[in-house]
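We give this protein:

***
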Amino acid sequence: MTDTTATGPDLAAGIAALARIAAALERLAPPESAVPDLAAADAFVWQPRGRVLQPVPVVNRVELALLHGIDRVRDQLHDNTARFARGLPANNALLWGARGMGKSSLVKAVHAAINAGAAAGTLPLKLVEIHREDVETLPDLMAILRADAHRFVVFCDDLSFDQDDTSYKSLKAALEGGLEGRPANVIFYATSNRRHLLPRDMMENERSTAINPGEAVEEKVSLSDRFGLWLGFHKCSQDEYLAMVFGYAEHFGLAQDRERVRAEALEWATTRGARSGRTAWQYIQDLAGRLEKPLA
């Protein structure tokens, strides 16, 4: 019988080849997810590549008191968030309506106000932003947050879905469907210009092509039903717009003749064809620049 056992150079070459194969497989394998340091900040951005929660040291937001013209929805969202932060039942919220009226600003301002008014020794409420294109990875994010002691507001800005986009099904399942459902320590807030998150032509197309049009449309709009709290934002009046302008001006100490500011602010809105919180803020930035005053 012939002895086929490798020895000497052949054995060393075989071991080296196996080592190279093992190293190549390790490079192909996905990296292990790092345990998130949720004490690093009160706000994070979800990065699905690598399953990372990236801390945001300074959040771009305005104070809650500076958001004028949206008093009713402001109070509703604040109350819902405050109940959730205390461990009480609360609803997912959809902030929908006119552009530039402070939908995303309200979410960030409410988060800051809740933490500022929290009792000493309590865990801060965490805000986690997920980008629209990453909603399919929401179950992965939920799995990470479920195991933590903090409470989380998961926030998606400008959420909407276009024709042939099926990722809304993942969002539906993550919010209220599936065996596990939404974690008790997580609530989902989204902003959108569309009340049902889907374009009208997409819904009309479903009606015209489906065997049962009613069922097809119901399947599409059922996503918005996952949000127990619907907060509508509508175009503001001239008085509300000016209240925003003067509120900002007083807060930042932009001393100017009131009638002059009024005239300039109205002209600014007219040239842009819109009155909104965003338009008011853009005018204030222009005014502060002309006065050479920083907006701290």
